[in-house]
Amino acid sequence: MMGDTELTGVPSRAGRTIRSYALRSGRMSPAQRRAYETLFPRYGIPFGSMVDFPAVFGNAHPVTVEIGFGMGGATVEIAEQNPGMNYLGLEVHRPGIGRLLWEIERRRLSNIRIIEHDAVEALEQMTGDGFAAAFHVFFPDPWPKKRHHKRRLIKRPFTDLLARKLRPGGSLYMVTDWEDYACRSLEELDATPGLINAYEGFAPPRQWRPPTAFERKGLASRREIRELYFVKPEAPVN
C-alpha cells in the first residue's frame, strides 16, 4: 500500500536502477515517533546480512512479504488473522513504520517484522532464493503520467526477482485501481518465467484482504479495483 513513497529501485532492462519511489519527509506524530524509537529495535531487521527467518521469528512458519505497506492497516489485520504465518514488511516511509509498530504492540502481535530499506536491495542481499511463501503488493504508486511509467514497480526484471524468491507453490498477489497499470502488470507477469496466472486474466477479489485507504480513494474516484494472482508451480513448466 504505497502512497507518496514507493519502496523499490526497479532495475531497468539497460541495467540502470530507476527508483519507483520519491522519498518525501512525512510528519511523524508523537506516538509514531515514540513507537519507532522504542519498538523498531525489537521488530525491525537492520539492513545488511542474510536473514535467518526461523531465528528472527522464533519459528519456521511460512513468510509472506508485503512490499510497501503504507500505514500498515491491512498488514496488521492479515497478520492477526493468521498467527501461523510470518509477515515481513518492506517500507521506507517512516511515519507508516511508526504506525505499524504501534499497532503491533497494541495488538500484541509476534509475527511481523520490518525492513526499512529499498526492496530490491533488501531482497537481493538479505534473502535466499525460494524463501517466500507469498508476496503482497497492494495499490503500488501507478505513476500515471506516461513519462513516469518506467518507475512502475510491477514489471520485469523486478518480477523475475520476485519469482526467484518465491518457493514452489508460492504466490504473488497484486491489487491496483489503475486500469492501465493493471493491464501492463498482467502483461509483465505473464512474461515472467516461473510464474503462472492462476486465473484467465484478472483474479476475483480475495475476501480475506482488508480494504485500504488507497482502495477507498480509488472507489471514491470511481476507479475499478483489479486484482492479479500469480503462482509459482510446484514443478518447472516445460
Detail the topology: elements first, then pairings.
Elements: E1 9-11, E2 17-19, H1 30-43, H2 53-57, E3 63-67, H3 73-81, E4 86-90, H4 94-107, E5 112-115, H5 119-126, E6 132-138, H6 158-165, E7 166-176, H7 179-190, E8 196-197, H8 213-220, E9 226-231
Parallel strand pairs: 3-4, 3-6, 4-5, 6-7
Antiparallel strand pairs: 1-2, 7-9, 8-9
Helix pairs in contact: 1-4, 3-4
Structural class label? alpha/beta
| Gyration radius, rounded | 17 Å
Q: In the residues, how many domains can be counted?
A: 1
> What percentage of amino acids are in beta strands?
15-25%
- Terminal CA distance reads 35 Å
CATH superfamily: Vaccinia Virus protein VP39
Order of helices and strands: EEHHEHEHEHEHEHEHE
The CATH C-level class name: Alpha Beta
Structural account:
There is one protein chain. The chain has 238 residues and is α/β, with parallel strands linked by helices. It has helices spanning 30-43, 53-57, 73-81, 94-107, 119-126, 158-165, 179-190, 213-220; strands spanning 9-11, 17-19, 63-67, 86-90, 112-115, 132-138, 166-176, 196-197, 226-231. The protein has a single domain (29-231), classed as 3-Layer(aba) Sandwich (Rossmann fold). It contains eight helices and nine strands. The strands form two sheets. The protein has a seven-stranded mixed sheet with strand order 5-4-3-6-7-9-8, sandwiched between helices. Strands 1-2 form a two-stranded antiparallel sheet. The termini are far apart.
